[in-house]
Amino acid sequence: MVLAFTEEQKKEIEARGMTVVQTKLILHRFVKAIMPVFDKVWDMCKNMSKEQIEEFLKDDEGEI
């Protein structure tokens, strides 16, 4: 994964007390942790029918 920041983004990152390298490391670790979850959800969706997907995505009116 290649991450590139504009000069403006670099200034914003550094203003928060971090380096660009630290930010890239955090983002890389986040993606590494999330990808297995995304892959499982994607596999589940591939095995669902259109009706099941619509039901899954439908808003539940009774929930808070």
Main features:
elongated; mainly alpha; 0% strand; 69% helix; single chain; 64 residues
Question: Can you offer a commentary on this structure?
Answer:
The chain is mostly helical. It is built from three helices and no strands. The longest helix has 27 residues, at 20-46. The model has no long low-confidence stretch (mean pLDDT 87).
What order do the helices and strands come in, and which of them pair?
Elements: H1 7-15, H2 20-46, H3 50-57
**N/C terminus separation:** 39 Å
Spatial shape: elongated
Could you tell me the number of beta strands?
Answer: 0
Given helix and strand content, the structural type is mainly alpha
Low-confidence stretches: none
- Report the sheet with the most strands, covering strand number, pairing sense and barrel closure: none
Number of helices: 3
**Gyration radius, in Å:** 19 Å
Helix content: 55-70%
Helix-strand topology string:
HHH
Q: Return the average pLDDT rounded to an integer.
A: 87
Q: Strand share of the residues?
A: under 5%
